[in-house]
Design brief:
The complex is a heterodimer of chains A (317) and B (72). Chain A has 317 residues and is mainly alpha-helical. The longest helix of chain A has 57 residues, at 90-146. Chain A starts with 14 loop residues before the first helix and ends in an 11-residue tail after the last helix. Chain A is built from nine helices and six strands. Chain B is an all-alpha fold and 72 residues long. Chain B is elongated, with a radius of gyration of 16 Å. Classes of the chains: A mainly alpha (317), B mainly alpha (72). The A-B interface holds A 73, 99, 103, 106-107, 109-110, 113, 178, 181-182, 184-186, 188-190, 192-193, 205, 208-210, 212-213, 215-217, 219-221, 223, 225-226, 240, 317 and B 10-11, 13-18, 20-22, 24-26, 29-30, 32-36, 38-39, 42-43, 45-46, 48-49, 52-53, 55-56, 59-60.
Chain lengths: 317, 72
């Protein structure tokens, strides 16, 4: 049925359940963050966390096998080798953390007013897990599988985030929070500008808005001066020095998540709120694997088509 | 106009967040990037996204003029 205005069917408030759900869900998320942060700093050998200080210890990929290596001048390479990754000081880590938390609070207040505590919490927790797990799957599969050469390493090069205060698996918490902020704002913007559009094209435009911002943000934040994340060489197509799969991933994730989230009231109608909450998170996990599979398949096809020609857009930055 | 926006500031939070994210994450950070003049010019690529966000913010303001304050 065609929507006549931009209004996601809002679930009826159920304060008692909503508070319990928020308490349990945020509690579990905080426990997971504490656990993975401990693992990252105190047991780095478990997940093979690359050193931020001694670049020569990097393996799969080595420093020379990263995209950033080709973007650097000789002086910059020497600086990284001698001083390590920039932005590891506490003030820099705090800045990213505080700014992302402030943005999340503002968007969450907006979401709570328009959709209620349950749907707002599902968006925040769902998007946090959706992106944190997706990024970590790519990071860890790249680190342990593709990088080792067990599967074609050129399907897509891996990447990792060298710096953060808190971690969710191998994804910085501030990245997951920013992802919520961007996804919510873009989905809301899309609905506001095109209120009579169906859900699918609206989600598609939300994904494109986010991708548009990311097309500039990523080349800036992966520059040698900032290095918020590091890409391994691999994919044959680079856009502004970043593998194309990154932008495709941004678009896909927001597009898929926006659709899943707007299905929440339907899930509630079918299963009740408690079961709908669990099933929503399960669907999010399945969608995560589906998006990863889609990226792998598209990566295989695109690399097979373009590796021979060596298409690079544009050549290095 | 400003008092109207301030009174209903919550309605503008998603747009404010996106502007801030774009401004701090991309624009201010790009000032730290040396030897790459192209990276600032690359910012032009965000114009379609920023235009849509601006349209949405203006639409929100116009709706507030029609429907009255939401915080009352």
């Amino acid at each position: 049925m065609r929507d006549t205005s931009y209004s996601v069917p809002v679930a009826q408030p159920n304060p008692e359940f909503d508070r319990k759900f928020a308490f349990v869900a945020y509690g579990l998320l905080i426990i997971a963050i504490i656990f993975f942060t401990y693992l990252h700093y105190y047991q780095p050998q478990v997940l093979h966390v690359p050193s931020n200080v001694d670049i020569s210890t990097w393996e799969n990929p080595t420093f020379e096998q990263t995209c950033i290596y080709d973007r650097m001048t000789e002086a910059e390479k020497e600086k990284i080798r001698s001083k390590g990754i920039p932005g590891t000081d506490i003030s820099s880590l705090l800045l990213y953390g505080i700014l992302s938390i402030m943005g999340v609070i503002l968007c969450f207040l907006h979401a709570r007013r328009h959709y209620g505590l349950w749907m707002a919490s599902c968006f925040l927790i769902g998007s946090f897990i959706f992106t944190g797990l997706q990024e970590s799957l790519i990071i860890l599969s790249g680190r342990f599988v593709w990088g080792g050469g067990a599967v074609d390493p050129y399907v897509f090069g891996t990447y990792w985030f060298p710096t953060s205060g808190l971690w969710f698996i191998e994804t910085p918490v501030w990245v997951c929070l920013c992802w919520f902020l961007i996804a919510y704002s873009c989905v809301w913007t899309s609905g506001k500008v095109f209120p009579k559009m169906r859900l699918w094209p609206r989600a598609l435009i939300g994904g494109l808005i986010a991708m548009g911002i990311d097309l500039w943000m990523d080349p800036v934040l992966t520059s040698p001066e900032i290095m918020k994340w590091v890409w391994a060489k691999g994919p044959s197509i680079l856009i502004f020095g970043i593998p194309y799969s990154n932008f495709l991933g941004w678009f896909f994730l927001i597009f898929v998540f926006a659709i899943l989230w707007e299905w929440l009231p339907r899930l509630e109608k079918r299963w009740g709120r408690a079961k709908a909450s669990i099933n929503f998170l399960l669907i999010v996990l399945i969608a995560d694997i589906a998006v990863l599979a889609a990226l792998l398949i598209s990566g295989t096809i695109i690399n097979a088509l373009f590796r021979a020609q060596g298409l690079i857009i544009p050549p290095g930055w | 106009m400003l008092s109207k926006i301030w009174k209903n500031r919550l309605e503008f939070y998603p747009f404010l967040c996106m502007y801030l994210f774009w401004f701090l994450g991309s624009f201010v950070s790009s000032l730290r990037v040396e030897n790459r003049p192209g990276i600032v010019a690359l910012g032009l690529i965000t114009i379609p996204s920023l235009t849509l966000i601006t349209i949405a913010a203006v639409k929100t303001y116009k709706e507030l003029l029609l429907t009255g304050d939401t915080n009352e």
